[in-house]
Amino acid sequence: MIKKKNKLLLILFISISLSAFESCDENNNQRNPVDNNKKDTVKSESNSMIYRTENIPDFSVYEDIKDRKKAFFSYLKPFVEQENKKVLYERNYILSKYQKVNSNDSLDDSDKSRLLGLASKYRVKSKLKFDEDFFRQLILKVDEIPVELALIQAANESAWGTSYFAKTGNNLFGQWCFTPGCGIVPRKRNEGATHEVAKFETVGESVATYIRNLNSHPAYKPLRTTRYVARQQKRRPSGHELAIGLQKYSAKGMEYVEIIRVMIKKNKEYLF
Questions:
Q1: Is residue 54 very low, low, confident or very high in pLDDT (cuts 50, 70, 90)?
Q2: Which end of the chain is more exposed for a tag (fewer CB within 10 A), N or C?
Q3: Which of 247, 88, 73 is nearest to 150 (CA)?
Q4: Element (H, E) at 262
Q5: Average pLDDT across the chain, whole number
Q6: d(Cα 140, Cα 137) in Å, to the nearest integer?
């Protein structure tokens, strides 16, 4: 049974989180690195949408920037919403198992295996102890990313879907990888650098990797902490609010945060 210390706070947070999940279901310097040696070990519980696998549309055909923005957001939004839905199903599962352990019920082997798979996916260190700290770390990391934040970052990183890496590698978020042959070698890569721009088979894979990295990489802990605080206050954090946690997404640091925030503000009519 989980120790009683700080348990009341976590129980309150779980209650808030479950409520948020139900509401949703109703309606860098490291450049987001991709770990090519890891594969997702947890299957989605939601098969309501199959990712489209066709090539990214040619958004350059839209001469009017307003039309291009509408087309880009309209195309990408379903991918982000679907991936968020998958993350929230994982989150709900974690919360339900915490409640089970807190009620002094034991976890069966399949639950333990799945929880350990989630811990691996989200970079949560585990000593095979399904205690309060284990669940706290998972709850902090397994949560949705505001749709507007994902859309604006994609627009910024891919030049509204027209960049070379977006069109040839389905990479909308400027994500890097470090295994030789894992992606596309940048023509302007600095001497001695080993990174490549990650290449994805589908846009859905690109979106899933982006969200998983924001939820798991140590560089984005401030984003997750800000989100956690908002959850405790019984509200959903906005993309503008969570952008503060993106200082390490780009070498520009705080300037990058302000760029994203300004873009969110200027594109409200297309985002919401």
A1: low
A2: C
A3: 73
A4: helix 254-266
A5: 84
A6: 5
